[in-house]
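Suppose you are handed a protein chain with no further information: no name, no annotation, nothing but its sequence. What can you learn? This example shows the usual starting point.
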Amino acid sequence: MSEEIDDEIISEEVLYERIDHYLLKFGTDRSLLCVSELDGFLTALGCSAKELEPDLWLNAIWGADEDQPVWESAEEEDEFLSLVLIMYMEAMNSLLFGEFSPVYLEQEYEGESKILVEEWCAGFVRGAKLLGVGIGGDRDFFDEALAPVRLFGTDAGIAKLNKMMEQEVSFWREMIEPSVQRLIQHYHPEMQVGENASDTRILH
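A reasonable first move is to predict its three-dimensional structure. Written in structure tokens, the prediction is:
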């Protein structure tokens, strides 16, 4: 295990770098492949009233049974699990205390910066499917609340966005966080949704 992980407090930068390292090293086409996608996935886990055993959602990070990593050492596996559990607890605490702040990617293109929400939304959609978020109950509510993340996080949604004007795309992008907060409050009305929300975290 690296010296950084042995420290009592790990920096956010090191946390994300190490997780990305393992996701890229062991990931397949069916795996979550970046921290932004993982953050969306973990956020979805916190939006539902249903709780999954850690083994179930940890395995789902990689995809199917045949996609599970063949670790080179027990230390490597332990480090990854420790890192992901740290990120999981941070995500749950941010939801619990009304500090929801998704981790988006940033892309430089022709001298301009662009925030990418697609990976985060794809991770959220995946976590929601794993938990069955939106199945049963008030279908109209769930369809409305999940609409923004489905637009940016699924192939069908991206196809729809490609036919929209930029103003319409911007509208749906701005609706992602309020819609997720509605889901959080639906399942957990005791949570302090939105009261202490912090700025979005951006990965370069």
